[in-house]
Specification:
Layout lengths: L10 E11 L15 E9 L5 E3 L5 H5 L10 H18 L7 E5 L5 H7 L4 E5 L3 H9 L4 E2 L5 H7 L3 E7 L8 H11 E12 L1 H6 L12 E2 L2 H10 L3 E8 L5 E7 L8 H13 L4 H27 L4 E4 L3 H10 L9 E3 L16 E3 L9 E4 L5 H7 L1 H5 L3 E3 L9
Parallel strand pairs: 4-5, 4-7, 5-6, 7-8, 12-13, 12-15, 13-14, 15-16
Antiparallel strand pairs: 1-2, 2-3, 3-9, 8-11, 10-11
Helix pairs in contact: 2-3, 5-6
Length: 401
């Protein structure tokens, strides 16, 4: 393969999580044991330092329909409201009708917050189920994959284009980036929200590596991509959501002044060494240590007669469960809030998924797969903590929502 960002050919394997199923394909009983498995490996580009998967599961398999919903967690909705308020304050302080296009708009949660501020909104969402949910909620949504062709068919430009948690998913990366450039007003702003590889490594959050996430950006590698397409990062900051997600602000060159906080983040990133292959090698070593620690914890707890439930059935949890080889022999069930996953099973390990609000039985241990919402989970379940139930976090983020 060639590098997804710079077309370089010098790629080195740095993280190998084995063969895994597409982790967003939660299974019905009839599908158990019939799922496909694909290599889950991260390679490093010697030319531009971008970390990326070396195998692509086709977008039509992963994104034509899935069960992820943005609006399920209060923390994420609050985060999206904060983004809308910030964009309004910074780029539309006098109010008035402005337009926003949301790429991968999911159930419309982000755009609903913009609608409340009086914006003209349009979502582009590839999943037919979530696109319908958004449309039913009053959010205009195109059910298709975003590309340069999409923008040209719309025949208009936007004041803001947003991409929350999708810009690292892109199989057609350069078509999408070119489409953003074409669709953005001269003084417009592209708001890109992405998992930050420096935070992933600092948190040892290897479970954020899965087939939907084709790329793992740092500020350096993102700017290499943007510069290739005539776009420029002018501001960024690290938000607590998802254990440390970078919020970047991008425009046409020369239209916005580069901020001091971006300059400081760039200096911090450079001094950390997170763009070096040595840091990726160290990350792989820590992943192996985490596997041993977690397996020992679960097997010892089970051997002592303790009942263990999984807290949450997030997509990333399936990377962890499959890599650790943890199934229903150790974790009896996964408790979820997202009703689209009710009575399904986790891919690969086939742990049954039950609704959190329908479960009367309490375990001795909650094994928290949705660790990125640690604060919210502990706050909502303080009464269970007080009752002596353990909440075990396999990954402990330094920054958590």
């Amino acid at each position: 393969m060639i590098c997804r960002v710079c077309d370089g050919e010098k790629l080195q394997l740095v993280v190998d999580l084995g063969n895994q199923p597409w982790c967003n394909h939660f299974l019905s009983k009839d599908e158990l044991g019939k799922e496909d498995f694909y290599p889950l490996r991260v390679v490093y580009c010697d030319d531009c330092s971008t970390a990326q998967l070396d195998y692509t599961v086709k977008k039509e398999i992963m994104f034509a329909d899935h069960t992820y919903l943005s609006g399920v967690t209060k923390s994420l909705s609050n985060h999206f409201k904060g983004i809308a308020d910030e964009v309004q304050h910074r780029f539309n302080p006098k109010g008035g009708a402005k337009s926003i296009l949301d790429i991968g708009s999911n159930d419309g949660t982000q755009l609903i917050h913009f609608q409340k501020l009086g914006w003209d909104v349009l979502g582009v969402e590839s999943s037919k189920t979530t696109a319908k949910i958004a449309t039913d909620a009053g959010v205009p949504t195109l059910n298709q994959f975003f590309s340069k062709k999409t923008v040209k068919s719309l025949g208009k430009k936007f004041d803001v284009i947003n991409a929350a948690g999708v810009f690292f998913h892109l199989e057609e990366l350069h078509s999408v980036t070119e489409g953003i450039k074409i669709g953005l007003h001269n003084d417009g702003v592209f708001v890109v929200q992405f998992l930050y590889m420096k935070s992933i490594m600092e948190n040892d959050a290897f479970d954020q590596i899965y087939h939907e996430h084709l790329l793992y950006y740092t500020l350096k590698t993102l700017q290499i991509l943007l510069n290739r397409h005539g776009l420029e990062l002018f501001d960024a900051y690290l938000a607590p959501i998802h254990g440390g997600q970078m919020i970047g602000f991008v425009g046409h060159p020369g239209q916005h002044q580069k901020t001091t906080r971006l300059i400081e983040l760039e200096k911090e990133e450079d001094s950390s060494g997170c763009n070096s292959i040595e840091e990726y090698r160290s990350f792989q070593d820590r992943i192996l240590s985490m596997k041993e620690k977690n397996i020992n914890y679960l097997t010892e707890a089970k051997a002592s007669g303790k009942k263990i439930f999984g807290m949450g059935a997030p997509v990333k949890g399936n990377t962890l469960l499959n890599y650790f080889n943890v199934g229903p022999d150790l974790i009896e069930c996964l408790l979820e809030k997202n009703r689209l996953r009710k009575n399904l099973y986790s891919p690969g390990k086939h742990i049954p998924i039950l609704m959190e609000d329908e479960m009367d039985i309490k375990p001795d241990i909650y094994y928290v797969l949705a660790w990125n919402f640690k604060k919210e989970i502990l706050a909502n379940n303080q009464h269970l903590v007080d009752a002596g139930i353990d909440f075990y976090f396999p990954i402990n983020p330094k920054i958590s929502a």
